[in-house]
Amino acid sequence: MLKEFFKRYSPNPERLRKNKALNFLGERIYHPSLWHLNRHSVAKAFAVGLFCTWLPMPFQTVIAAALAIFFSAHIPLSIVLVFITNPITIPPMFYFAYRLGNRLLLREESDYSFELSWEWVATGMEQVWQPLLLGSLTLAAISSILGYISIHLVWRYNIHCRWKERRTKHKASRLLRKQQKKALKRAKKK
Prior knowledge:
Elements: H1 2-9, H2 13-18, H3 39-53, H4 60-71, H5 75-82, H6 90-104, H7 118-189
């Protein structure tokens, strides 16, 4: 179902070729793995998207698209995953990243007060940028690796279940055919 959704709403590579605004990206933008859903492109897309989700900077989607092109990941899925960070999730995610960075740097958390002003951004960020960046990059790497491995495992499990279902159906149909043959032989004998 998810595959059909992305197929329906993903841009057509032929239509992209006609778009003159994308010519600066070169031929690499038209590579099939950037637009087709398969185990490798989806796993890479999760790795790229989850990594970019934790970056404490604007334009995460642009970075995700660039990394998706570089690593031949599915571009639309990489970009969609970046939207895990949104105005609701950003504060708890980056606060957690800040606290993790403090622990990794063996620092005690400073009691700073947050104000929504340019003055605080200029002065307050001096205190928090190192632990925030370290925590964010650590969480980005961990979630990226876990996402990549999880997609491969889920994909393989799904394939295993489908093969098992096929075998069960095949055995059931063989058994039914045998029973039908036996019934025909009995009917012929009578």
